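The following record pairs a protein chain with its ligand, 3,4-dihydroxybenzoic acid.
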Amino acid sequence: MSGKDWSRVDGYLVSALQPPDPALDAALVDSDAAGLPQIAVAANQGKMLMLLAQSVGARRILEIGTLGGYSTIWLARALTADGKLVSLEYEAKHAEVARRNIARAGLAERVEVRVGRGVDLLPGVEGPIDFAFIDADKASNPEYFEGALRLSRPGALIVVDNVVRGGGVTDPAGDANIRGIRRMFELIAAEPRVEATAVQTVGAKGWDGFCLIRVKD
Ligand code: SAH
Ligand code: DHB
Ligand code: MG
């Protein structure tokens, strides 16, 4: 099995379970056209995020790492009727593309994209939050986990993307991103307020994985 097979199966799974979605397709087309990197979550991962957020009845969602707003749209669709999502993004251009994509998806009222470094913006985010998606610079994952936990209500879920990085996560001497992921795992393991697991994935996005953290009641 190779990356080509993983992509073929992702294509099948998405076509089997997910109807065409013009607003999400357009978000990817316009993100590409604006020159953004093609690193949004896959369609089946996006839907998994939506289902997880719906499962906790999310009224307030925090996202760190907006890019073109693809995962943002999935997550905002999970919000309760009075819900709000705040997404933090360092690149002003990414935020601008994202705001257009989010508006086209009919979600402008419920989503706020804030521009700046995640670590600088986190202290200004109002809690309590029900769900967090951490998907920005991986070197800052320890700070992002601590920040999301501080804001979380009991029973909240925190999902962290890209925790496997093609297997690189097992290398203690890896780059700053790998070290950030490993340090985050150490913090999670030592944190009595949470329970967590991490799952490897293959698919259109290659070999990677996500970490699922639940804040105890
Ligand atoms: N969640 C998006 C993908 C995010 S890609 C999706 O799945 O659709 C990672 C994003 O994090 C990029 O847009 C990048 O500009 C942003 N980023 C990088 N460093 C950051 C930082 N220090 N603070 C906030 N965002 C950052
Ligand atoms: C990268 C970032 C991501 O969030 C992702 O899902 C895949 C790749 C990257 O920076 O290469
Ligand atoms: Mg990611």
